[in-house]
Amino acid sequence: MSLELLLAVAFGGSFLTYLFSKISTRLRDGCAVFISLALVAMVASFYGTTVEGSFYSGFLGLPMILRTNMLSWFFAIAVSSLGALAVIFSLSYMKDRKRTDFYYLMFLLVNAAMLGVVFSGDLVSFFIFWEIMSWSTFLLISYNRGPALSAGMKYIVMSIFGSMAMLVGMLSLFVTKGTLNIAELSTLVASSSPGYLLFLVVIFGFAFGIKNAVMPLHTWLPDAYAEAPSPFTAVLSGMLTRMGMYGFLLILYVIVSAAGTLQLGSGVFRFHYILAWLGAVTIVIPTFIAMLQNDAKKLLAWHGIGQGGYMIVGIAYGTGLGIAGGIFHTLNHAIYIVLLFLSVAAVQYRTGGVRDLNSLGGLIKKMPIAFLGGLLGICGLIGIPMTNGFVSKWLIYKTLILGGSPFLAFAALIGTWGTILSVYKFLHNMFLGQLPEKYKDIRPSPVSMKIPIIILSGVILLFGILPGIPLKVINSISVSFGFESLSVSLWGIASETGALNTINLFAAVLIGCFLVGFLFRAGKKSIPVDQENTYAAGAAVPRGKYHYTVDFYNPLYRMITPYLKDFVDVFYMKLAGWTGQLCAGVRRLYTGYVGHYVMYIVLFLALLIFVQVKWSPW
Amino acid sequence: MPILEIIVSPLIALIIGLFFLGLSRKIMARIHWRYGPPITQPLIDIIRLFSQRSVTHGRLFHLGMILALAGSLVVVLFLPLGRWCPLSGSGGMLVILYLMLLSPFGIALSGGEAANPNTSIGISRKLLLALGYEVPLLLILLSVMTRYQTISIVEVVDAQQGASWALFSAPLFISGIAYILILPAILGIRPFEMVKAAQEISSGPMVEYGGQFLALATLQHALSEFIGIALFVNLFLGGAGNPLTFFLKMLVVFILGLFVNAALPRLRIEQAIKYLWRWPTLIAFMGMIVVLVVRR
Question: Which ipTM did the prediction report?
Answer without folding.
Answer: 0.89
